[in-house]
Specification:
Length: 145
């Protein structure tokens, strides 16, 4: 697969705006996230609840990442200019992420971008650091009840 990605020179990667037809894929990819490094939710929502979330258009921009005709991940830009980037496991160790981040930022220019990463998610910390992001703060949460 890695050779194929290099040979295609990423020409077959594109970002497609999320539509209703992507709901099932987005739910599936949400379920693929490592629960230990996740920060967006404590437990997996129901399919119906996730459908309402997707339909609510919660992000400024939200794309499905396509390689050839296969959906391989998603990337979004929140209203606070936070980036969320997620891939199918088989694509998470390729150079695709660097390319996707670059075309995403070119397509959605902002003065600054943020990314929220669980401190245990060493892979994401390394990726975003290598792409020029710098640590800004540590945020703590206390849940009562």
């Amino acid at each position: 697969m890695k050779y194929l990605l290099m040979k295609l020179n990423f020409n077959h990667i594109n970002l497609k705006s999320v539509t209703k037809t992507d709901h099932e894929f987005l739910y599936w990819i949400l379920g693929q996230r490592n629960p230990e490094t996740n920060i967006s939710h404590g437990k997996m929502p129901t399919f119906k609840k996730h459908g309402k979330f997707v339909a609510s258009k919660p992000y400024k921009k939200w794309y499905v990442i396509k390689f050839l005709d296969e959906r391989i991940g998603s990337i979004y830009l929140s209203y606070q200019n936070e980036i969320g980037l997620f891939f199918k496991k088989e694509y998470s160790k390729t150079m695709i992420a660097n390319y996707v981040l670059k075309i995403f930022m070119k397509k959605n220019p902002q003065h600054q971008y943020f990314v929220n990463i669980n401190p245990r998610n060493k892979k994401s910390i390394k990726f975003f650091t290598k792409n020029g992001f710098k640590i800004l703060q540590h945020t703590y949460k206390l849940e009562i009840g």
